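ARCHIVE CARD
CATEGORY: sequence design from structure
SOURCE FIELD: tokenized fold
FIELD CONTENT:
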């Protein structure tokens, strides 16, 4: 068996940008305050649906970019292909680096890829809040192999022109072993070692596991946002990343 450490990402990403912080707060003002609190400990931010629906989303994008930050628009688009194509074309005019689209439908993924411009399209394979039992509910209780489903959706996304994937750290190792392509892989569901989440996350890994299995970026939200000292929590993650990628 190949040593999983051999899958440590060699993509030329500055170590400090491998951490993407999930800016999941109720609106732009608390978002700005948190960004200012984090300072230079975070350089890449994920902006999701909560902020999108609170108003001022794109003004916040511009505010972050003006401060030298990178932005990941985690909007998880899912609609008929033409609607997705037009939505992606509109977002491609904005200064965002990454955009998520759900990975179930090949036509939708191809439509997104056709309109992406400079934005990288990431296909969401299976949400980290779901496990095999959850997925089996759509099949009248029939067993679902999560690893196999993730790999199938990963292949479909890359064949349709997507740039990368959202995948749990539990499945990244298989993706790296079995896919000849080298997609960008962003891994959410990061939790400290020994921490059993008291939340909706089910398929979780540590910072070290995610990168050793082949993730390019990790998304961390609650462990930083809800810490007594968010900046110190972010700096601790960055210290771990710097150690892992030292000399690369």
């Amino acid at each position: 068996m190949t040593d999983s450490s051999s899958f440590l990402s060699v993509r030329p990403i500055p170590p400090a940008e491998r951490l993407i912080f999930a800016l999941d707060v109720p609106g732009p003002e608390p978002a700005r305050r948190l960004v200012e609190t984090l300072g230079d400990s975070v350089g890449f931010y994920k902006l999701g649906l909560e902020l999108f629906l609170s108003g001022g989303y794109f003004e916040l994008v511009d505010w972050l970019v003006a401060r030298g930050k990178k932005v990941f628009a985690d909007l998880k688009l899912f609609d008929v292909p033409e609607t997705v194509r037009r939505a992606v074309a509109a977002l491609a005019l904005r200064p965002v680096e990454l955009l998520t689209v759900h990975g179930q439908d090949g036509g939708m993924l191809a439509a997104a890829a056709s309109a992406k411009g400079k934005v990288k399209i990431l296909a969401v394979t299976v949400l980290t809040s779901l496990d095999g039992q959850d997925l089996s509910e759509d099949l009248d209780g029939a067993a679902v192999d999560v690893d196999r489903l993730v790999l199938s959706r990963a292949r479909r996304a890359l064949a349709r022109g997507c740039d990368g994937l959202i995948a749990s750290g539990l499945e990244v190792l298989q993706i790296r072993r079995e896919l000849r392509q080298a997609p960008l892989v962003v891994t959410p569901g990061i939790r400290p070692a020994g921490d059993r989440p008291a939340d909706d996350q089910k398929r979780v890994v540590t910072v070290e596991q995610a990168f050793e299995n082949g993730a390019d970026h990790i998304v961390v939200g609650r462990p930083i946002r809800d810490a007594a000292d968010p900046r110190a929590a972010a700096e601790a993650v960055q210290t771990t990343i710097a150690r892992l990628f030292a000399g690369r």
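CARD ANNOTATION: The chain has a mean pLDDT of 89. The chain has one domain: 4-243.
SHELF: design records, drawer C
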